[in-house]
Amino acid sequence: MAHKKGQGSSRNGRDSNPQMLGIKLFGGQLARPGAIICRQKGTKWRAGRNVGLGRDWTIFSLIEGKVTFDQDGRRINVLPIETPAPAKA
């Protein structure tokens, strides 16, 4: 049995690439259709109204509107922006 390691053996030469997870658009911000609101692993945040859930659990907007959170910040919705009614002359 060898009492010394061979040349070039390294035990901790591994590193993984960052995954860039988390909230990308916060409450009150404007989301356009297809905009990524949240990247996650699993369903830490749940998809609510007017948002979609991708195959990798990415939550994205389906409409243009304002991002809102409910259920203690665990469900993400996008509410449409109310346009003011035109003034009558």
From TrEMBL:
Biased composition (Polar residues): 7-19
Entry-linked InterPro entries: Ribosomal_bL27
Transmembrane region(s): none
Record's protein name: Large ribosomal subunit protein bL27
UniProtKB keywords: Ribonucleoprotein, Ribosomal protein
Database matches in Pfam families: Ribosomal_L27
Family: Belongs to the bacterial ribosomal protein bL27 family.
Organism: Aquisphaera giovannonii
Record's GO cellular component terms: ribonucleoprotein complex; ribosome
A single BP term in Gene Ontology: translation
PANTHER family: LARGE RIBOSOMAL SUBUNIT PROTEIN BL27M, RIBOSOMAL PROTEIN L27
Region of interest (Disordered), residue spans: 1-20
NCBIfam families reported for this sequence: L27
HAMAP family: Ribosomal_bL27
Gene3D superfamilies: 2.40.50.100
SUPFAM superfamilies the UniProt entry points to: Ribosomal L27 protein-like
Coiled coil location: none
UniProt-recorded Gene Ontology molecular function terms: structural constituent of ribosome
Top-level lineage group: Bacteria
